[in-house]
Amino acid sequence: MTTFPSVCPYDCPDACGLLVTTDGKQVTEVHGDPSHPFTQGKLCAKMNHYERTVHSPKRLTTPLLRSGPKGTNAFTPISWEEALDRIAERWQTIIAEDGPEAILPCSYAGTMGLIQRNAGHAFFYRLGAARLERTICSPAKGYGWKAIMGSTLAPHPQEVKSSDLIILWGSNAAATNIHFLHYVLEAKKSGAVVWLIDTYETPTAAIADEVFLVRPSSDGALALGIMQVLANKALIDEDFLTAHVQGYEKLLQEILPQWTLEAAAEITGLPAAVIEKMACAYGRARAPFISIGSGLSRYGNGAMTVRTILCLPALTGAWTKTGGGATTGIPGSSALPMAQITREDLISTPTRIININQLGNALTSSHPPIKSLFVYHCNPAAVCPDQNRVMEGLEREDLFTVVHERFLTDTALYADIILPATSSLEHSDIYSAYGHYCLRRVQPAIEPIGQSRSNWEVFQLLAQKMGFEDSFFSRSADELIDSLIASSSGWLDNPAKERLAQGALVELPLPMDYKTKFKTPSGQIEIFNPLETEPLPKYLLPHGGELPLWLMTAPSVYGLNSSFLEREDLIDKRQTMNLFMNPKDASARKLNDRQTVIAHNSHGEVGFLLAVTPKVPSGVVVAEGVWDFNHSLNGRTVNSLVSPRLTDKAAGSTFYDTKVEVRSN
Ligand SMILES: Nc1nc2c(c(=O)[nH]1)N[C@H]1C(S)=C(S)[C@@H](COP(=O)(O)OP(=O)(O)OC[C@H]3O[C@@H](n4cnc5c(=O)[nH]c(N)nc54)[C@H](O)[C@@H]3O)O[C@H]1N2
Ligand SMILES: Nc1nc2c(c(=O)[nH]1)N[C@H]1C(S)=C(S)[C@@H](COP(=O)(O)OP(=O)(O)OC[C@H]3O[C@@H](n4cnc5c(=O)[nH]c(N)nc54)[C@H](O)[C@@H]3O)O[C@H]1N2
Ligand code: SF4
Ligand SMILES: [Mo]
Description:
The protein is α/β, with parallel strands linked by helices. The chain is built from 23 helices and 27 strands. Strand 18 and strand 19 form a beta hairpin. It starts with a strand and ends with a strand. About 55% of the residues are buried. It binds ligand MGD (2 copies), iron/sulfur cluster and molybdenum atom. One ligand MGD binds next to helix 17 and strand 16.
């Protein structure tokens, strides 16, 4: 038996340290790495048996060629040579007839490894393909941070242990950030109070001392109402504001007067007295810490909401206290010169840009049309908004679709050619994290399953077939990693680089003064940001719509976007495609618990099993997790109801900005 250190490859802030045991051929066990400073040896329910995913009988093991109508699972095995020849030939024809911009790559975050995740960028830039704007996750959250805090680093998540008031704001941490909760619980033991601000009682409610349920998209109004109380009751830190904040006076004069408790109450749905109590508790806390999740940023007003919330620690000077402040995520990958891998310099002329949230639109009505789609570590049929349009596109007989995958996903079912992909235990990579400051390089623990190949290998082979002579494409993944580490500058010193190159866990050091020397153009926290179209934070309306129920497309504890659908043990825990609804809304519609229902809006219709529960307030319904068509009642899943509209800034997804009506099936 041999044990290899590794890192969880999934799109999760925790990026857990793994210890992978093999018998030389098979992975026998996967455990948490106790030496990891943040994750400390614990894994979530999904990854405790990663070997079941790696050795799943459902793994794709050979290239496949479509031999029947799209979507019917009619494929015959072919060799890699034939698959690559067919792809290259078809692309040469498309390039000759329509130009390379008729080819579109589609990737997101099936693996977070910095090499494999970004493996296709150089190839598609060199090809001159259309460019994908990868904004499906939460770019509006990052935009909000940047507008107020610039490139200031977020506090060390472990620091939350020293906080006395922890606010989990739009973050279902029990599903999506479980190790952070470990430190939250430690703080609780020392007397800290924990709040959850969400739109329904998520599993995270169980660890919260107080749960505040707000109307979807209204958090900006809550933050403004709180600020008004802070100002009125002199709960602000004048010295901090003078020394470190730009624009408080303007906010006070131009924005806050409208934000009476009544105004904030009307929009958020929280009683005025509750908002006042929240403001007083926040203003009086010694070191309040806000963890801002992605949920509240996925609305037409998402970036502005995040900006507004980030004013709170500026007003109270929470930044000066150990354990105080706020976070929206950690930019660990910025320690490495990623441009070496993404190679924007290979773009000879800028090509058209297609937003991943509007893929359906692009595949069905782009002029000139998209003729070929190359999907890798992404499952757009399941995860993209406007699923009906996406499927209309994938069904196009004239769209040449190639899918590089570990499993026969709903997207792969519509491929002309499927290429089998390695799992993270079968290829080299280097990982950063967006929930802590650790980095680690990893080596494969086992040989590739069947004939599977890594993302980087596939693009190397395609580069050869397309006749690209750039030496870049002949470098191995390990050579790329060596060079990334060797040429990083600034954040990693030489001993750290040495350790990183050799596979040790490296935690990036935070500068001593990162909470007082703010990295903005003015050097201050920019409540007033003159570069913004709206220089002051304010409340913006979401996209919304006329229908009565907000639909929360929230994460599931036992899945990760569409990953882990191969695991029957986890599917059993998720049970079925439930739609959670408040008893009042159910009875108003004469609907009963456990009956089948249809949620519908102008984008589509989806069948669910109704689960009536007081955990969801009236006016909200919840569909947790992403499912595949196999498990759905009407051949469609939740993203059929989600619109392709974008956030106010950063062109992000607006998953939660969805309204529906529900009827009996
Ligand atoms: N188990 C599990 N873990 C995951 C994932 C998963 O699917 N499952 N997904 C991974 C990925 S890709 C990401 S980006 C992260 C995301 O993780 P999070 O940052 O937790 O973000 P979200 O998943 O979007 O949703 C967080 C919460 O926001 C709430 N919410 C929605 N609208 C509002 C609102 O208007 N106001 C407030 N206050 N709350 C609102 C939702 O109800 C939900 O509980 O998690 C990662 N980890
Ligand atoms: N309704 C709803 N929709 C959502 C979300 C939600 O919470 N609710 N979350 C949204 C968010 S935040 C995100 S980030 C997106 C994520 O969307 P995606 O990035 O598409 O993530 P996954 O659904 O996990 O699918 C990734 C696929 O990559 C494959 N894969 C894994 N590793 C590799 C590899 O090394 N190589 C290759 N070629 N394939 C690999 C997996 O088998 C899997 O099928 O989904 C979004 N969609
Ligand atoms: S999914 Fe997240 S919590 Fe689970 S093992 Fe991976 S990084 Fe850790
Ligand atoms: Mo995400």
